[in-house]
Amino acid sequence: MTDTTGLTDTTGLTEHVTRVWDDEIVPALHDYIAIPNVSKMFDPQWREHGHMQRAIDLIRSWCAERSVAGLAIDVHELPGLTPVIVMEVPAFGAGSNDDTVLLYGHLDKQPEMTGWRDDLGPWTPVLEGDRLYGRGGADDGYSAFASVLAIEAAQAAGFSHHRCIVLIEASEESGSPDLPAHLVALADRVGTPSLVLCLDSGCLDYERLWVTTSLRGVAAAELRVDIVTEGIHSGSASGVVPSTFRIVRHLLDRIEDSATGRLVVDELHVEIPPDRLAQAEATAAAFPSAGSEFPFVDGARPMIDDPTEQLLALTWRPALSITGASGIPPVEIAGNVLRPHTSVQLSIRLPPTCDHAAALAAVEQALMADAPYGAKVQVLHGHSGPGWNAPSFAPWLQQALDDASSHVFGEPSRAFGEGGSIPFMGMLGDMFPEAQFVVTGVLGPDSNAHGPNEYLHLPTARKLTEVLARVLQAHARR
To answer: Do residues 170 and 109 touch, judged by C-beta distance below 8 A?
Structure first.
C-alpha cells in the first residue's frame, strides 16, 4: 500500500491493530491496572510509594519496543512535580517535520472507590468478554499504547504523517497542576501543533466515532466548619450549641438551591452558544436517552425529564457534587455526641467558557462571608481548572473523521459535549488557538470511570486506534 491508494486496501491495517491490541496491549494493561498509581491529590507521597514510577516504567518500556521509525522517548522531570513521558516521532513518508501532531493522554488514576462487584476490584484486572475491568484502563491508561500503535500502524500501512509528539502526563486526575510548568519547559520540543488528538474523553455509544466539542471546567475545595473544640454530649449541648452539619447545610444554600439543584452564584453561569444549543437538540433527537442512562435505584428518576435539557445540564450548566466528608463517624459507631466539626469536599463542574478562577473566588466569598453563629468557617485547598469549547472543524478534518468512522465503525462520526474536565485542553486552546482538536475516547455507557467496576470496551479501543492512524494520514494529505 502507498499514500495514493485512497484508503481502499487497508485490511492489513485492521489486522495489525487487532493483533497488537489482543496479543500485546491487553497483557500490558493487565499489568498497568494492577498498579495503584492514584493521582498526587490522593497520594501526596506518590514519589516515596513508587507506584507512579512503576506505571511510567511500564509504559516507557512497552513503547520503546515498538516498530516506529525514529521514535525517541524521554521522561521529563521537574523538581517536586510529577513527570511527563515525551515521545517524539519524525515525519514519515510525504509528511513534514515543519508540522506537528500532538497526541495526549495521562497515566495517573482516580482512587479506589467502594461498590465494586465481589469478583472485581480497582487493582485486579479482569477480562470478561469485550470488557477489561479495573481502575484506569479506560481512564486513561490505554491512551499511551493506542497513540503509539496508531503511529506504528500508519507507518506499516504506508501512510504518511507529519511529526508527532506524544505527551503522557501524571497529574490529570488532580486537575493537571503540574502540566503548565512542563509545557513551558518543553515549548521548543512541542512546537506549534496544527492538530491535537486527545484520547481522554467519552462516547454516547460504541457504534461510531464520537468527538467531544466541549468540556466543563472544575472548581473544587474543602468546606470546613468548626464550632467547639471537642465533642460534647448531645443531650447536654444540643439546642444551644449549633450543629456544624446544619451550618454546612446553611452555607451550601448560598451556592445551590437544594430544591432544584440550580447553582445560584452568577459567576458560575454563561450564555450557551447557539451552535452548541443546536447540537444538543440534534443529539437529543437522535439519542433521547443519552442523558438518563445511569444506574438509578428502582423508582428514581433524573432531575430533568427533557432530553435536550438533560444534555445541556451535563455540558453547559454548573453543578455541585459533594464527593467526600470528614468529621462524621460511621453510623455503626456514632455515639450521642454533638461533633466539633464537619468537612465536605465540593466539586463544582463549570460551563466550558466560564472563568474558572473567578468562579472559585465567588464561591469562596459566598461561603466565607458572615459566618453563622460566629463559627470558624474555612475553605481549604481550593483549586480550579478551565473548561474548553472546541473550534469548528476544518472541512478536511470533518471529512476525515466521517470517512474514518464510516470505514472502521460502519457509521459516520458524531459530536457531543462532555460533562467532564480535561484541563489540558483549555491550556492548549489558549496556547494554540489555530490548532484543530480531536477529543475522543472510549468511556461509553456504564464504563463508569472514577466509580466502581470501571471497564475498557476493547472493540471500541481497537477501532479508535485505527481511526487515529487514518486521521494522521488525512492530516498529512490535506
So the answer is: no
Q: Give the pLDDT confidence of 98-120 residue by residue, as tens digits.
A: 999 999 999 999 999 999 999 99
The CA distance from 54 to 171, in Å, is 15
| The predicted structure's pLDDT at residue 2 | 31
CATH class of 11-215+388-477: alpha beta
Which pLDDT does position 294 carry in this prediction?
86
pLDDT band at 10 (very low <50, low <70, confident <90, very high): low
- Which residues are CB-contacts of 422 (< 8 A; sequence separation ≥ 6)? 172, 198, 200, 201, 215, 388, 439
pLDDT of residue 175: 86
3-state secondary structure string, the chain? CCCCCCCCCCHHHHHHHHHHHHHHHHHHHHHHHCCCCECCCCCCCHHHHCHHHHHHHHHHHHHHCCCCCCCEEEEECCCCCCCEEEEEECCECCCCCCCEEEEEEECCECCCCCCCCCCCECCECEEECCEEECCCHHHHHHHHHHHHHHHHHHHHCCCCECEEEEEEECCHHHCCCCHHHHHHHCHHHHCCCCEEEECCCECCCCCCCEEEEEECEEEEEEEEEECCCCCEEHHHHECCECCHHHHHHHHHCCCECCCCCCECCHHHCCCCCHHHHHHHHHHHHHCCCCCCCCCCCCCCCCCCCCHHHHHHHHHCCCEEEEEEEECCCCHHHCCCEECCEEEEEEEEEECCCCCHHHHHHHHHHHHHCCCHHHCEEEEEEEEEECCEECCCCCHHHHHHHHHHHHHHCCCCCEEEEECCCCHHHHHHHHHCCCCEEEECCCECCCCCCCCCCCEEEHHHHHHHHHHHHHHHHHHHHC
- CATH says 217-276+313-385 is which class? alpha beta
Name the grid cell of 143.
491512551
pLDDT-derived band of residue 9, with 50, 70 and 90 as boundaries?
Answer: very low
Q: Where are the domains of the chain?
A: 11-215+388-477, 217-276+313-385
